[in-house]
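Reviewer 2 asked us to include a model.

Predict the structure of this chain.
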Amino acid sequence: MSRKRLQQLTDSLSRSAKHFSKSEVECLIKLFDTLAAKSSSRSAAAGLERSVFQESLHSAFGLPDGIVADRVFRTFDKNNDSCIGVVEWVEGLAVLLRGTLEEKIKYCFEVYDLNGDGYISRDEMFRMLKNSLIQQSSEEDPDEGIKDLVDIALKKMDYDHDGKLSFMDFEKAVRDENLLLEAFGPCLPDIKSRMAFEEKTFQEARKLSF
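Predicted model (structure tokens):
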């Protein structure tokens, strides 16, 4: 990427991804370029292909494989072109790393709404909980326990009692109890991995600020 193009992108993204400074945005663009070089030649021009994106988030933040990883990819991929462009990369990481509670509620709801119909259904809760719990469980058939968890979640979060969670249900539940933000599986980095990623990625930016 030319210096001029980098400067233009940095200026534009530091306005849209308000949680980052200009020098931090530049670091994220450089990281994006490094990762894009690992994508197949067809994808590299457009951005990060799914496997490279998911591997980078898994190694940086320990986000699990499976349904949730697929949904995180789709949530970043705002234009639905099956790869992550540099703008999607920086703006997505702004929410993941430094998003407000409101931004994180919207992000998690979008991840959990598997079919994009504006609701988290009983079946979607079951599939996501099964995906995240099966990796930690040695039980042969944990389905009954997962069904119980879905019932508990609905009892606690389904304020209008329609058997599914609207965005309003989810938002109210999380605002009342922040721990419910990732109720259906981890899709945000924990504080330790977030800090480690920032320390490693923004080293150059910090040097420039001293």
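The mean pLDDT is 89. The CA atoms of residues 88 and 99 lie 14 Å apart. We have added this to the supplementary material.
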